[in-house]
Amino acid sequence: MDGAELVGVQKTLTPVLKAKALDNRLPDPILGDRYAERVMRRLDPGYDRGRGATQLGLVAVIRSLAHDTWARSFLAAHPDAVVLHLGCGLDARVHRIDPPATVDWFDLDYPAVIELRKQLLPSREHYVQLGTSVTDLAWLDRIPRERPVLLIAEGLVPYLTEADVRRLLTTVVEAFPSGQLQFDTVPVWAWRTSRWDPTLRRYDAQFHCGFDDPAALAQWHPRLEFVDEAPMYDAALVKAKAPATVRRVYRLLTLLPGLKRSTRIVRFRFPPRRSSDAPAS
Ligand SMILES: C[S@@+](CC[C@H](N)C(=O)[O-])C[C@H]1O[C@@H](n2cnc3c(N)ncnc32)[C@H](O)[C@@H]1O
Question: Where on the phi/psi map is residue 204: left (φ > 0), alpha (ψ -120 to 50), or beta?
Fold first, then answer.
């Protein structure tokens, strides 16, 4: 693609995209993302051939479906929402969900990723793509703030430091009247061992934070409430939809309790402000 060379953590978008593309080739896909298949084919025409073509990234597909389901239900209840989709990579969530025109949707990622997105994915009304680090909070000045917010960060939080995640979440809670925050985290052991993770090493990327009890992040702000967690290993879904070879591998993986909880998908909300609320120090 023209002029968009991805480096380091930006490259971690590829295995997730590939997982979604391969899912779409199943007779009965879990996510059914035709954009992922189209984009992956343009990036790597042979992506679905050879050893790398097994759908072992199924957890990424299940994670995506969980985020889509939560996002759809929030937007059904708040058709006037503003969506902040942080670390969007080449994910086509805005097209999958296809929100009504009353929703304003912002996709954010590093400039090189956004440049590539613009070459590979369609644009649409009420949709803006911002090329910036999500930790440089100047981007918030470009967002309308008087409406409910939906913040989605899929596969992003572990790449940020805890201090940056805290500043990001509490600033968003302060900036909007009400909203929902949904993201996924890894446990402390996965963060501490990430420098030896072969996939991350390949992309020259590392995790910078981990949480053993992500629900406790609600303590970062008095208005923040933990809502629930989505299952990362949806056994019924895998059994119903994944090919037999993949089902066998997943059965083995789920026997390892640490791996089963290696990613946590969590949802928080914050209700309209009361005059006594202030951030926790
Ligand atoms: C594992 S990929 C996930 C992509 C997408 N959310 C998905 O699920 O397909 C991580 C993404 O986070 C982005 N990212 C990491 N740190 C970031 C930062 N500080 N600012 C903006 N994007 C960031 C990377 O560029 C990459 O696109």
Answer: left
